[in-house]
Amino acid sequence: MSNVPAPKSFKAEEAENLEDIEKQFAVKALLSVDTSMLFRSKAVQHMSTYWGLLEKIRGSRLRLTKMDDDIYEHLKRDFPEFDPTETIDEDKMKSKSGKERWRNFMMAYEKKVEDYNFGTLLRSNPKFEYGEKETIFVPRMQFYAIEIARNRSGLNDWIYVREHPDEEIGRPQDTASS
Questions:
Q1: What are the pLDDT digits (tens) for 111-161?
Q2: Chain centroid to CA 89: how far?
Q3: How far is residue 83's CA from residue 18's CA, in Å, rounded to a whole number?
Q4: Beta strands 119-123; 135-139: pairing state
């Protein structure tokens, strides 16, 4: 914007396009708010859907993608130190070297996994529900890799068990006792 003063004869209240200009500013402001809210809304929807699945299916029996096996093997190969039982160190994950390692990991899925880099909510520790202090924002491939590892380790089964307390441990969920 320039600092050139308006002509002395200019009266803003009488400008012909004042209402149209205000509408344009309002739409631009609304779009910027709607865009960030849309991303947050999609992330929250994804979180709710995933939690709902874990309540209905044991995590150890759940497949998140068609490529779960490949993603899991890739995670173990590129992050041999990763322990799915541990709390994620967000600072380490988002450090310069951490970002680079994860970026290299994720790029392998750029053309293979839809929305591979879309922002997603992840629990920092598999022992807790989603909460303000227990949730971090990560790209979807980090979510997939970490949750696949947790599910393979049975770390999310407690969510299903809590929702189905009367079910015998180890009994298949789709059969009834006679």
A1: 999 989 998 999 999 999 998 889 999 999 999 999 999 999 999 999 999
A2: 16
A3: 60
A4: antiparallel
Q: Which two tokens stand for residue 152?
A: 């393979």
What is residue 166's three-state secondary structure?
Answer: coil
3-state helix, strand, coil in the chain (%, to 5): 50, 5, 45
Q: What is the dihedral of CA 87, 90, 91, 97, to 10 degrees?
A: 100
Question: Does residue 35 register a pLDDT over 50?
Answer: no
Q: Is the pLDDT of residue 27 over 90?
A: no
96-107 helix and 68-78 helix, angle to the nearest 10 degrees? 150
CB-based contact 123:159 (threshold 8 Å): no
Q: What are the phi and psi torsion angles at 122 (to 5°)?
A: -130, 135
90 close to 112: Cβ distance less than 8 angstroms: no
Q: Identity (one letter) of the amino acid at 27?
A: V
pLDDT in tens, 50-87: 999 999 999 999 999 999 999 999 999 999 999 999 99
Distance CA 142, CA 162 (A): 26
Which residues does residue 137 pair with via DSSP β-bridges, in sequence order?
Answer: 121
Residues 34-56: what's their mean pLDDT?
79
